[in-house]
Amino acid sequence: MNTRWIDRIIYGGALRQIAVLIVLTASLILISSIAVCWGSEYQMTPEEKAAERNGQQPDDDSWTTSLWSVYNNFVDPGNQANVNREDRLWAIAVSLLGSVVLGGLLISTISNIMERRVEECRNGLVHYKLSGHIVIIGADAMLACLVRQLCKKKDNRTLLIQTSKDVSEARLSLFAKLTKEEERRIVWIHAARNSKEELERLYIANAKEVFILGDSGELDDVEYYHDSMNVDCLNLIGKICQEKERKTPLRCNVLFEYQSTFSVFQFTDIDDDIKRHIDFCPFNFYETWAQKIFVGNKCTGRDITYLPLDYEPIDYHSEKHVHLVVVGMSRMGVALAVEAAHIAHYPNFIRNKKKKTRITFIDCNARKEMEHFKQAYANLFDVSYSSFIDPRTGIKEQETPNNKYTHLGTDFIDIDWQFVQGEIESPGVRRLLTEWSEEPDSLMTLAICLNLTHHSISSAIYLPHCIYEKEIPVLVQQRITSAIVEKLFRHSSHDKEKQSKTRYRNLRPFGMLDDCLDLQIADDLCAKRVNVVYKEGKEFLATLPPQETIDEWWRELKTVKRWSNIYYANSIPTKLRSVGYKTNEKKLTEEQVALLAEVEHNRWNIEELLLGYRPVYQNEQEAIRRNPKLKEVKRNNEYVHVDIRPYRELDAETQKYDIILTRHLPLIMKGSRESEEA
């Protein structure tokens, strides 16, 4: 017998179960009443039958009376005491039937409904109609840090977390790190982020903001498909917002695991048909950590501070230079080096071309990793000096800029690159570390970026003694927890005197999975104000436009222009330190403006080269001089920029942009601070 239809009723929704129970009860009462009426005809006395044949009606309606009697006995078996002796057999049958249906099926149905509701809530299968909420897609390791930051905001918005993982396990893991107040704001939904139907159930078109993190552990036998699924999810959200005709673009923060994928979306816009409805904000775990260290100089969820690369300010007359040594060309190591290349630009290079920032990689596979790195940033290395050292074999190789760019004049790139083959524990590498630490004009920072936590810790505590004696900052990558390294540099969190004498006081942990995204950095407050100044293009702005206008102008920008403004904003603290600017000063002097404008162009050259632009060849330069309209064509279609050259070779109109932007640095910083305080 096919019982599938019964199973569908049992496992169906609550309304279906209740409807079936009501229909069943009514049917049984009706059938029982008919049976009682039919059976009552055989219990009539001869006088009653004769009266019925003569057309005389009984005193009451036998059908109504039977129906009422059946109902009373069906819902209340206690009514049998008042039943006539001749009707007791019927009463017993109806009462037993009522006990089974109402006493058994009704209670079990209600219990089943409640149990299923609890189970559905526990497993994230209940969907609520929400509006103005924040959607977090994916239970990534950084989820707790993100939720804590969102809960600090005073808007009290509901946080809807969607995951394809087991909701019960994800909830227990997250709630162990949150307070009761934070837990109350969270709604869990179990769904796949690459399903349009399930995304629609999140009422995502009504959301305030979306964070697409993805679930950790998305690995099959062939590849890691995290980034591809996040892009699919973004496209589906865009289509949903388009179909729902959302007017205000929905801010979508999308996490990219691989730097190659992230780099593509730094200069590639999303499809035009969904761009009107989506404010696309890509971010990368490793680049975000690099910004936290070198720009924000602090950890988000832990009481840890970091020194900037120029922990001694480098002004025009300084003899110092920054030297960042990265141990391990891992994804984190490369991200730190690239971020340093964006911000480590100083005025003394203008006076002395030898005062360059030096970025050194140390890796046991440095040769292979160097080739991969140079391939990724080929345009940068075409105009930069780099070297390769193998202490074990004594090999030293030097690469100079490509001769295709000799027409650009003298060396104008203020960063040199160095690649060292070997393990950090090898004698040759230790000897190099000692030599670098003893350079009198070097501001050295050592970043140990090994993927295995215990390798990073052992490498950090067994460094040459001069690293500790000179208090050179040592960054130690940690994956899950920073407890060990924190214990090393904090001898006693309450005893400042003992803490200052700790041998490992220069160690700082970084790179923890649960402490990545910084919402203050993600808001791009400074970068938006940079865009305002660039857009207005006036000699001086006394005030900034309203925030709504600033946000609207920001949404109009192409992705590559956004990142240009972000990198500019990240460099502002370094610039201001180099001229001794104080936060209470209203403006920069014209001498400071002229100096920092040239520093900015040196930084911009690196930024454009890292983003994939290249300088012009000599024949292209001549063609642009004859036809200035080719400048825009080359830049937009071929990623060739004529302004990648020494600052002194720019025309006055082009230099004006750097001067105007520099003149507004105090206003940009003041506006950002006011927004953060608000």
Structure description:
This protein is an alpha/beta fold. The strands form two sheets. Strands 10-9-11-8-7-12-13-14 form an eight-stranded mixed β-sheet, sandwiched between helices. Strands 3-2-1-4-5-6 form a six-stranded parallel β-sheet, sandwiched between helices. Mean pLDDT is 83; it is low at 673-678.
Helix content: 40-55%
Distance between the termini: 69 Å
The average pLDDT value, as a whole number, equals 83
Unreliable stretches covering 5 or more consecutive residues: 673-678
Categorize the overall geometry: elongated
Computed Rg: 36 Å
Strand content: 5-15%
**Number of separate strands:** 14
Walk across the major sheet and give the strand order. Answer: 10-9-11-8-7-12-13-14
| Helix-strand makeup class | alpha/beta
How does the SSE layout of this entry go?
Elements: H1 4-10, H2 14-40, H3 46-53, H4 62-75, H5 88-122, E1 134-137, H6 143-152, E2 159-163, H7 167-175, H8 180-184, E3 186-190, H9 196-200, E4 209-212, H10 226-243, E5 250-256, H11 259-264, H12 272-275, E6 278-284, H13 285-296, E7 321-327, H14 331-343, H15 348-351, E8 357-363, H16 366-376, H17 378-381, E9 386-390, E10 395-399, E11 415-421, H18 427-437, E12 442-448, H19 453-461, H20 465-469, E13 474-477, H21 483-489, H22 496-500, E14 507-510, H23 519-522, H24 525-536, H25 547-555, H26 559-578, H27 590-610, H28 618-626, H29 630-638, H30 652-663, H31 665-677
Parallel strand pairs: 1-2, 1-4, 2-3, 4-5, 5-6, 7-8, 7-12, 8-11, 9-11, 12-13, 13-14
Antiparallel strand pairs: 9-10
